Task: structure prediction
Amino acid sequence: MDLRAGSFPNLGSFLMTNSQAKRPRHGGCHCGAVRFAAILPDNVVALSCNCSICAKAGFIHVITPGADFRIMHGEDMLTEYRFNTGTAKHYFCRQCGVEAFNVPRSHPDDWSVNLRCFDADAGLLPRFQEFDGANWEAHVATINPELAPDGANDA
Ligand SMILES: [Zn+2]
Result:
């Protein structure tokens, strides 16, 4: 019996229905000038953060690996805002003011896409999780163990 995936004619349809199968999910800002695509499975963690900017903007994070995110159009419509350490890059549509995605301080090589900005048919099944970003240093390891304070990961 040949166990290579190619020998299973139904594997393709299985992958299409598997909620862990990744596919492009589209979304954008309010006015439509900025559009993005993020390659994600159906089941995603949605981080509700209480830091100074997320609390005011209502941004809900879906962390997306850098290689799995694309700005489809409107990059020239973005304006950038930084504060505090300057690590996070907040991008706003200069026309409608919506922040559809950013580069988060917790994952500076990745993107965080605003759950609220995906198209209605994106098909995401978010599992909400609180992140105490107001006390970022003490809690960042809960969402990125690589950023644990010195010694916290020592065995
Ligand atoms: Zn816009």
Remarks:
- The chain has three helices and ten strands.
- The domain at 23-141 is CATH 2.170.150.70 (Metal Binding Protein, Guanine Nucleotide Exchange Factor; Chain A).
- Confidence is low (pLDDT under 50) at residues 1-8, 151-155.
- The longest helix spans residues 11-17.
